[in-house]
Amino acid sequence: MDVMLVLILVPMLVVIGNFICVCFYIRKKWKMMMKKKRMRRDAEAAINGGDSLDPTVNNLQQLNHESSSSVIGQNLFTYEDLSRATSDFSDSNLIGQGGFGYVHRGVLVDGTEVAIKQLKVGSGQGEREFQAEIQTISRVHHRHLVSLFGYCRIDSLRLLVYEFVPNKTLEFHLHEKGRPVLEWTKRMKIALGAAKGLSYLHEYCYPKTIHRDVKAANILIDHSYEAKLADFGLARTYLDTDTHVSTRVMGTFGYLAPEYASSGKLTDKSDVFSFGVVLLELITGRRPIHNSQPFADGGSIVDWARPLMIQALNGGSVDGLVDPQLEYDFDISEMKRMVACAAACVRHSAKHRPKMSQIVRAFEGNISIHDLTEGSAPRLEEIQEIGI
Ligand SMILES: Nc1ncnc2c1ncn2[C@@H]1O[C@H](COP(=O)(O)OP(=O)(O)O)[C@@H](O)[C@H]1O
Ligand SMILES: [Mg+2]
Questions:
Q1: Whole-prediction pTM value?
Q2: Angle formed by the axes of helices 332-345 and 301-313, to 10°?
Q3: Tens of pLDDT along 37-57?
Q4: Can you identify the CATH homologous superfamily of domain 72-163?
């Protein structure tokens, strides 16, 4: 009798126990689902309900929902605010036309000047860019990184609202036809500013960020020639534990690090390489790729400049390298410093490239050229060894 009771009771208890566990599990899942749904609804309401917001930047309502959508937590603008600010996105206010859409200058009702980037509609890439810019740029606050004031997202339209940086880009000042020559002191100032911005992204903000599109056209300049790094549409975050991030190769031809271009292996050192290319532009006045001024063997600015940099760093002259338009109007020790930084940044081996904070210190004169190049300036044999 007792045995019978046990034989019946035990399986019953097991079944009841399992049933209770399943109920708890379903209840928990249901609660989580409802919470997610509620958060998504709040997010949508926040995004689409911008019409009621005060249109001035200072009074904009800050939305700090717990984020189910990564765009929450930024200032919202209505399309009408932005249309008014740009005279209906008129051509006279068009200041840029990049790979991902149009940029207009605008003035908000409180007089704040802004730059408004309208991402191309309908592409998945556009949406990814939008998310990446908001995620990255709203976390980072630095004098040498362009600030994001907010955004507008309505139907398929995606607009980003930035502080306005009034004096165009480094590309414009260096390469646009008919421009006065960009003075050496300004080149130094721009290089240092951009290096500080990038160093902050790589080493001091959390999570650390790789810009992925460092180039002269993405370095904005203000009236006192302070540089501000812009265009975070391709930016990727990474953790200290990541050795690299694998990704589809994006960025701009002529600036891509070799290991990234060939295998999509992305690290902060990919940005360091691109920054080295920018330094080469500042030193030589040449574009990284130029149809009317091709480099020997159809190679890149890096291949062309490498032997000249080595010669300069081993006590030779900088003549063949330096922008002739400068007409020798530069400080030679500063020039050598920049050449040493460029040479170190464009090293073939990513792990031998310096960190951006080392570049900053080198520009500020707090680290010797020898420390930057690990005790010795690169020699020609080294280059041949790595098969360049
Ligand atoms: N904050 C800004 N202030 C002034 N001009 C800007 C600003 N942001 C972008 N621009 C102009 O618009 C151009 C394209 O912007 P960018 O953010 O680089 O977009 P894209 O992804 O299309 O390259 C820039 O090269 C610059 O001329
Ligand atoms: Mg750009």
A1: 0.77
A2: 130
A3: 543 443 333 333 322 222 222
A4: Phosphorylase Kinase; domain 1 (3.30.200.20)
